[in-house]
Amino acid sequence: MRIAVLEDDQSQAGLLQRWLTQAGMACVAYATGTAFRSGIARDAADLILLDWMLPDDDGLAILVWLRGTMNIRAPVMFTTTRAEEEALVLALDKGADDYLIKPLRRAETLARVHALLRRGTTKPMSVVGLGCVQIDIDRHRATSNGAQIELTDRELALAVYMLRNHGRLLTRHELLENVWRTSPNIKTRTVDTHVSRLRAKLALTPENGFELSTVYHKGYRLEFREAGAEDGAGESEARQPQT
User: pTM for this structure?
Assistant: First the structure.
């Protein structure tokens, strides 16, 4: 499991990293909102520990960005000195899953982290659909425009991951880690090859409402627009032509 921690207090961040690492989890810490936003857009996390008060940002604003702009559904737990009920309820209403009041205690922190991770591993729905594409995971069956499509196990896993995360930048690191379950640091073109195959096999084309874009030096983004919907604003990342 990979935990992302946003904490500007270096001693507090170091303590959290030590507790989580000793509990068998990978942990990456960010000291500023800017660094966190850049890092979480590049590499996925299974759970996020989010400080409320930051030198360059606001924890609640970051939460709204995570849930809205980035469509990230990983559990989020606030760590805060704020104990006012109104503030905590607001955080939960905005999409937080839990909170811890500082000073943190090791046993409670790890218990809450494990509880959120268990909640996040609940078996998802077995049917994933978007537009003309439907995938029945349990039956290993994929269709596009009603026609059955033969996919390998890896292609099906990649298709499910991309459909569930449509609209969000998916880095090659994230795909290698979450679909291939391998080191994200290996140099390979296998992700690009599989994405290209899926585009062709599932007809992920503008004619069907899809735009599967290569985001230069980063990864891929699958976007979907219902028929008749207006085109969205241009993306800020430089993109290459479709592969």
Answer: 0.53
